[in-house]
Amino acid sequence: EKGGWPSFMKKEISEEPEAIANTLRGRLVDGRTVIPELEPLEPVFADIDRVVVLACGTAYYAGMLGKYAIEAWARIPVDVELSHEFRYREPVLSERTLVVSVSQSGETMDTLMAVKYASAAGARTLSICNVQGATIPRESDAILYTHAGPEVAVASTKAFVAQATALYLLALKLGESRGLLTPESAQPLIDELTSLPEKLQSVIADSSERIAELAQWSADTQSVLFLGRNVGYPIALEGALKLKELAYIHAEGFAAGELKHGPIALIEPGQLVFVVVPSPRHTGSLHPKVVSNIQEIRARGARVIAIAELGDAAVVSSADEVIRIPLAGPMFEPLLAVAPLHVFGMELAAAKGLDVDQPRNLAKSVTVE
Ligand code: M6R
């Protein structure tokens, strides 16, 4: 039930912090992961030479975040593929391939068919799923449930942050299995993960009103662009998908580095662009490059809304508007930056008088290929 909320989507965005906390609960103890559900695959973890993540839509963007974490913490190469593309070529798979499917519903036919295909080809399969007892988990060697609670709105929000959290847990587990993470070296990452719910709570509380105003002003916008880099890139894609499905507005997400290879030609006066800005504090940060992207597009008349860390002064002089997120480690910023984009999609749809929970032409789970 909506419990007094104007929409399920608004309620579910407010539950994002809880979805992360519930997905983590009991699974991190003394610098190590404790995930009994993964036991069936444990002997395989030390031996796999590749991970393939299969998913569609928002779950695919969570999968992209999983790639950054698994490659960084476990040093295993990861491919992230749209299930419907993977299934219809001749993918190379072996018993040393771990196929990780990500699906909120566990019923997405494209992903189910891809998992069956991978299984038949001898790959090991792990399902990350939110709905207990769904079909995809039943077809998999092991299941890692997200505990986001029931998600009713067609647009996926709290499931996304829970999926990313589950993938980060898997990345920690794989890092341990390979001897790359010790309780000491994992602890700072675990501290980051466990502090996310509180930080995300403050992002939602502090930014939602401002985002709603910005959405009101943007109700007549024909097109919105989203830029991000590294872990901010999937967030840009997610922000764009939400606007398409909820507000029926043309929206594109780009890797910010790609701008000069084509998309900058789209920039004209008044174009609204969201930019997910990485923290300047991290070693090797892409912050200066993203700030210079902002300057390039502002110089061409675009209106820039930056999502940036508290205290990042450089964005203030370059962007039109800055939405602040608390300080977090590089891998964890996207889980804070995504909520304002969820709110923006929802508020823009509401400003246009559209049904936020049931966008046209879409179903909550896509059970046909
Ligand atoms: O149930 P699933 O996670 O497998 O669904 C995948 C996509 O259909 C889903 O994420 C879709 O893209 C959402 N409507 C996006 O908000």
Question: Key terms for this structure?
Answer:
369 residues; alpha/beta; 13 helices; binds 5-amino-5-deoxy-1-O-phosphono-D-mannitol; Glutamine--fructose-6-phosphate aminotransferase [isomerizing]; aminotransferase; EC 2.6.1.16; repeat
Q: In percent terms, what proportion of residues is strand? A: 15-25%
Q: Total number of β-strand segments? A: 12
Oligomer: single chain
Mean pLDDT: 96
The helix-strand sequence is HHEEHEHEHEHEHEHHEHEEHEHEH
Please give the order of strands in the largest beta sheet.
4-3-5-6-7
Spatial shape = globular
Q: Structural class of the secondary structure composition?
A: alpha/beta
**End-to-end C-alpha gap:** 30 Å
What does the radius of gyration come to?
20 Å
Uncertain segments: none
Largest sheet features: 5 strands, parallel
Instruction: Name every ligand kind in the structure.
Output: 5-amino-5-deoxy-1-O-phosphono-D-mannitol
Number of helices: 13
Helicity range of the residues?
40-55%
Protein name: Glutamine--fructose-6-phosphate aminotransferase [isomerizing]
Organism: Schumannella soli
EC number: 2.6.1.16
Function: Catalyzes the first step in hexosamine metabolism, converting fructose-6P into glucosamine-6P using glutamine as a nitrogen source.
